[in-house]
Amino acid sequence: QVQLVESGGGLVQAGGSLRLSCLASGRTFSIYAMGWFRQAPGKERESVASISWSGGNSYYVDSVKGRFTISRDNAKNTVYLQMTSLKPEDTAVYYCKATRLWVEYWGQGTQVTVSS
C-alpha cells in the first residue's frame, strides 16, 4: 500500500512559478513510476508528466514542454513538479500517481490557480 500526499499548490500570477511535491509513504517508493495529472473544471483528467522508477526517463504533454520539469528523490520518497512560466490554462487540481504493473495509487490533489 502506498499513500501519496501532494503539496505546494496555490495562487500565482501568470508567468510565475510553483513547485509541487508528492510525498509517498512506504519503503517501496523507488519501484513505482510516478506521474502528475491535472483536472480543470469541466474537463477530463489529463497526464501532465511522468518519470520512470529510476528517474532516467520522463514524459511531458506538449502543452507543458519547456515549462514544467518532473523529478524524483527516491531517498526522500518524493516526486516533484517544477512549474515555470505558468499560464491561466494551467489552472487545475494536480494529482500525483504511483504505478507499477496493474497497480496504481492516487493522491488527493492540490489546487493550482493561475491568475491573468
Q: Explain this structure to me?
A:
By secondary structure, this protein is mostly beta strands. It has strands at 4-7, 10-13, 18-24, 33-39, 46-51, 58-60, 68-73, 78-83, 92-100, 103-106, 110-115. The N and C termini lie far apart (40 Å). Strand 9 (92-100) and strand 10 form a beta hairpin. Strands 2, 4, 5, 6, 9, 10 and 11 form a seven-stranded mixed sheet that branches. It has a four-stranded antiparallel sheet with strand order 1-3-8-7, with no helix packed on it. It is globular and about 40 Å long. The model has no long low-confidence stretch (mean pLDDT 95). The chain is built from no helices and eleven strands.
